[in-house]
Amino acid sequence: MEDIRTITVLGGGVGNARFLLGLRDHLAAASDPATVNAIINVGDDMWLAGLRITPDLDTVMYALAGVNDVQRGWGRVGDTERVSAELQAWGVGWPWFTLGDLDLGAHITRTALLREGLPLSAIVERMTERWPIGVRMLPVSDDEVETHVVTAEGEMHFQEWWTRHRAALEPTAFVSHGLESAQPAPGVLEAIEAADVILLAPSNPIVSLDPVLSIPGVRDAVLRASAPVVGVSPIIGGAVVRGMADQCLTAVGVETSALAVARYLGSRRDGGLLDGWLVDDVDAAAIAPLESEGISTVAVPLWFRDGPTSIAIARAALAVARGRMSPDGTTLGR
To answer: What is the pLDDT of residue 328?
Structure first.
């Protein structure tokens, strides 16, 4: 395949944002006019202090707009937290979940538009018009589908498990409340069906990718798509790049390794999702077994250290989709 006109990326927050930045910048440097659709997890979303909070959508939006706080990994750069301090003084919200003042502006805007009757997808489109982000962002659903974590201390929202408890409570299951009645947001299935390439960003497979793929109709659309599906491993050398994917994988009986995550997603040849898979150089031993299972696997450096490395990862993912990379990362032909 030579002409790639539409690229659709599925993912969550931080890893997805870094990958999308690299993809966007790669296309710009190559003067490539391909359209990028980003279908984003809403399982982390919640109501807090009367406001609708959408962590993954905001993380991606801020990163693409260039206003994200790269040190903390969330929120707006240079933000203050005077309002959060005042809310805590009033005993409102979660004292362990602070929000910046500029960030609160986004949450107030979103909530006001929801109260006016706009669906989340229309709100995301409207809010992202503020900056030239270069990517079309799509929440996977307009419906409220929230991820909860089951632990020995009871069931709690994912944000409480991760932010308050720092994932220290052993999870036994993950539950998506509202999933049964949820529908894909407008444009989601069309973005998958029209894609020339489908990419799975390096996101937590259990609490970022699964909540996207579990929305009724989404996984089936990926399975039916004529486009190649290439994923980027979120695991390097048996360890997570960021977050708590190891606890999540263990809870569902999956080893924390690039090989095991690829097998969890499955080969399309055998009814799974993947045609191709990017692993880090240290995980090159996964190439042979995955190739034998029908997943074209390539080893390249996968650490998002800066702009050039992010671009290189995105370029490699597209090269795998085009079938132009050998397993050792050598580019074949054009």
So the answer is: 67
